[in-house]
Amino acid sequence: MLTRKPYVFAVAGALMLAAAACGSSDSSTSGSAAAPASITYWASNQGTSLESDKQILQPELDRFTKETGIKVNLEVVPWSDLLNRILAAATSGKGPDVVNIGNTWSASLQATGAFVPLDDTQLNALGGKARFLGPSLAATGAPGQPPVGAPLYSTAYALYYNKHMFKDAGIADPPKTWDELVADGKKLTKDGKWGLAVEGASVSENAHMIFTLGQQHGGDLFDSSGKSQFDSPANVAAVKQYLDFIATDKITNPSDAAYSNGTEALQDFIGGKAAMVMWQSASGTLKTGGMTPDDYGVAPIPLPDPSSGGKQVDSMVGGINISVFDSAANKDGALKFVKFMTSKQTQQDLNKAYGSLPTVTDAYDDPAFQTPEIKTYQQILANTAAPLPQVANESQFETLVGNAMNQLFADAASGKPITDESVKAKLTEANQQMAG
Amino acid sequence: MVVSATSRPGGGRGSGDPGRPPPPSGGRKGRIIPRLPVRLRRLGLPYLLILPALLLELLVHLIPMVIGIGMSFIKLTQLYIRNWSAAPSAGWSNYHLAVDFNAPVGRALLHSFLVTVAFTLITVALSWFFGMAGAVLMQGEFRGRGVLRALFLVPYALPVYAGVITWSFLLQRDSGLVNHVLVDQLHLFGDKPFWLIGQNSFASIVVVSLWRWWPFAFLVLMAGLQNIPRDLYEASAIDGAGWMRQLRSVTLPMLRPVNQVLVLVLFLWTFNDFNTPYVLFGKTAPQEADLISIHIYQSSFVTWNFGTGSAMSVLLLLFLLLVTAIYLLITSRRRSDA
Amino acid sequence: MRDPKWLKWVRIIGLGLLGLFTVTPIYVMITSSIKPLKDVQGDFHWIPTTITFSAFHDMWSTVPLAHYFVNSLIVSTIASVVSVVVAIFAAYAVSRFRFAGRRAFSITVLSTQMFPGILFLLPLFLIYVNLGSAIGVDLYASRTGLIITYLTFSLPFSIWMLVGYFDSIPVALDEAAKVDGSGPIGALIRVVIPAATPGIIAVLIYAFMSAWGEVLFASVMTDEASRTLAVGLQGYATQNNVYWNQIMAASLVVSIPVVAGFLLLQRYLVQGLTAGAVK
Fold it and tell me: What is the CATH number of the domain that holds A260?
C-alpha cells in the first residue's frame, strides 16, 4: 500500500540527474584566477553573421593569446540580446570580463557603476588621450568623468548615392544642400523607384537623425541644466523636415514608414529601389550585396547654410566601445585585452574587415584607409560629427523620441497632414514622459 | 525517457507486470518502505503528492513575484541596479505615476490597457469558436481526417519566431502576399494598405494571434470531446435529438469543465502575450496595437526604469486577479445551479 | 449518431476555410525557403520563378543551428516529461482527496497564470545566480535553469487540466481498482492514468510546445552554449540583412521532428476510450 515514496524519489532523482547531465556540459562564464589565465569576451555583431564575426575575430584573439598567454573565451552576442545580457551581468555581478557596447549606451552604463572607469594612468597605458579620435573619445561617457571604455570602431553617417541612377537622371554630382537633395530626389523618383530610402520605424535611426537635424536647426535635445526639450522649435522643424520626405517632397516610399529592423532601407538601396540613403559605414554590407565603388559613391550629408544659425553637424558620432566589467574575474587580463584591441595592428585588421574606421590616429597609415570613402568619413568624424547627448537617461530619450517619430511616420505614410502643431504635440508628449 | 513508466500513455505497461498477480498487500513496493500507521499514510499522501509542484512554484513563480512586488516600491533605475538595497524608497510614487491618467505616462498606460482588453476579448472569442468548430467538425469518420488533424496542429509545432515572422512577411506592404492578393489580384483596394503600422495593425495582431492560438483550443477541445461517453449521444438520439440538439444538450454541457478552464487560460495568456507582438512589430509597437506587455517592457527594460515597470506589472496582476475572481464566481455559481 | 446531410457541406466549407487559414503561411514558408534571397525580398509570387536549395545549406553555418536544435530538444523534452509527472501527482491529489489547504493550493497555482513574465524575470534571474553559486550547480546560463523554469511554467495549466480530466473519471473506477487490492497510487496508475490518456497527451504536448517556443526568459537566461532555437533563430536577422530564406528553411527543418512526434501521438488523442462509461 505504501507506494508513494518511490515515486517522489524517482521525480527528485530525475531532476537531479537532469541537472547533473545538463549542468556539466555548460560553459562557465568567468575565467578562473588559477592555472592558465583566461578572460571572457562578449563581442557585438558587426559582420554579416555571428559565425563570420567569430571567424574575423579568432585570428586576433589567437595573436593575443600568443603574446600574453591569456586565453580568450569569445561569445558573439546578437544586438537583440546584448543590452539585456549586459543588464543581467551588471545586476548579478556575474558576467564576462570584457564587452563591446554601443557608444550611445556609454553614459547610461556609466551610471550603473558596473564598468571600470579608465583613469589617466590607464589611458596613458593605451597610448594617451591624444591617440584617440576626439569625437570617438567624447562618446565614452558623461563629460567631466573618466570614460568607461575605449573606442574600438568608429562610424559616422554619410550620404550614399547610386552612381548609375544619378547618371541616368542627368545629375552630375551628389547634392550639397538640402534643397539640392530634394530636387535630385524628385528627379530620381519615377518608374517605381524612389529618390531616398529611410528606415522610418527604427527607433535608433530616427533618434540619430533627429539629433543631427536638430543641431542643424540650432537646437539641442537637452538644455544646459540637463532638462529635456524635445519640443523646442528647432527640434520640431527638424522632425518636420525629416517627415516631409514622405509627406510633401514625396521622394521617399511611404512603405519606408514600416522599416524597423535596421536593414531594409539599405537593402532597398542595394536592390536599386532607392537612389540615395543616409547610413552609417555601409561599405561592408554593400560589398556583400554586390555593389562596388563603381556603383555607389559616398558624400557628406548636406549641411545647413552657415548664416542660418544652425550648427555645422551632419552626423552623430557612431561607434563601438570596449569596456571592462567592474566584477570581472580577471581585470588585469581584461585591461591587457583592451590595450591589445586598441593597438595599431588589431585596429587595422578589424576595421578593414568590418568597413568601419579605426579609433586611433596611428592606424590610418594603411593604404586600405586611404580610399575616397574612408577619407570622406574621416573628414566627417573630424569636423562635422557630434556625439549624442551623454546623459544617464539616454536610452529613455532614444525610446521616447524614436517612438514619437515612428508614429508620426505612420501618420505621414497614411496621408495624414503633417503640420508644425501635430509634430509639436507628439514631441511635447514625449518630453513630458522623460522622468526627472 | 526518465522516471517511472507510469506516466507513459497507452495504458498497457502501466498496469504492472502482466504475468504476475498483485500481492495481497497492494504493490511490491509496499514491502520496501517501512510501514507507518495506515491513517498517517493516508493523511500525508495528498501533501506528498503536491509537494514537488509546490516547491517548484515557490522557487520559480512565488518568491520572484514577491521580490518583483518589492521592486515596485523602490526607485530602481540604472543607478541602483547593482545594489538594490541602496535604492531609495519610492513609496507609492511609482504607482501614482502609472495611474495618473492626466499625465502622459498614465494616459499611455490606460490606452495600452484598453487596446489589450479589446484585443484579448476578440482573439479569445474567435480562437475558442474556431477551436470548437474544428473539433466538432472533426468528429466522425471521413476521408482525410488524420491529415487534416495533423495539419491543424502544424502552426502550433512551428517555432513561435518563425510563424510570426512569416506573418510579418505576408503583411509587408509592397512585397507581402496579403496585399498581393487583395490589391493585385482581387482589386479590393486601390492603394496598398499598411498592415503593420497604422490602424490596420490591430487587425493584424488579432489575426496572427488567432492563427497561433486556435490550434491550442482545438487540441484541448478534441481531447475533451473524446471523454464524452458515446452512450449519452445514443440515448439522446433515441429521444429523437438531431445533430444540433445533441451539440447543445450533450456536447456543450459535458465540455463545460474543459471550457471553463480553456477560456480563462486563453484570456490570461493572450493578455500577457509578449512573444507575438514583439516578433511581429519589433521592440516598439504602433499605438493602435500597443499591447500592455510590450508597453511595460518599453517602460522598464528598455529605459532602465525597473521600479516603474514593476509597479505597472503589479497593477496588471491585480486586474487579472479581479477578472479571474469574477469569472470563477460566475461560473461556479452556474455550476451549483445546474 | 447519424450525421445530417447538410453537415457534410458545413464540414467541407468549415474545415476547408480553417485549412486555408492554417496552410497559407506554411506555404509561404516553404516557397520562401527555396527561393533565392533576392526573390524573397522582392515582389511576391505564388510560384517561385527560380528554385534553389542554398538556404538549406547555408543555414547550418550562419547560425549554429544544430547546436541550438539539440539544446531545444533536450530542454523541452525533459521539462515537459517532468512537468507532466509532477502535474499528475498534484492533480490526482486535488481531484481525489479533500485535504486541508486544497483550495489554497488550487488558487495559488491558478494565480501564477496571471503573473506578467516581465515582473519576475529579473528577480528569478537573481535567484538563479545566487542559488546556483550556493549549491554549486550552474542555474543561470544553463540548460538546467531553463528546464526548471519551463517545467514550472507549464505546471499550473497542466495541473488544472488534469484535475478537470480526472474529475470526469468516476471515482467508482478507483473503487473498483481498490477492491482488487491496490492502494490509491495503484488506482492512479492502473485506472486513472489510462482513462485520462488523451488529456495527459494534450498536456504533454502543451508543456513541450510552451518550452519549445518561449523567447523572453531564454533570451536573458542563456548564453551561446545553452541557447535554444526560439532565440537562436533571431540570429538570422543580422546587422546587415535578414536572411528570410534561411529562417524559413531552418524553421521547416527543425519542425519536422516535432510534427512527426505530433503525428505519432495524435493516435492517443482519438483513441475511442470507454473509460468514461461505467457500466
Answer: 3.40.190.10
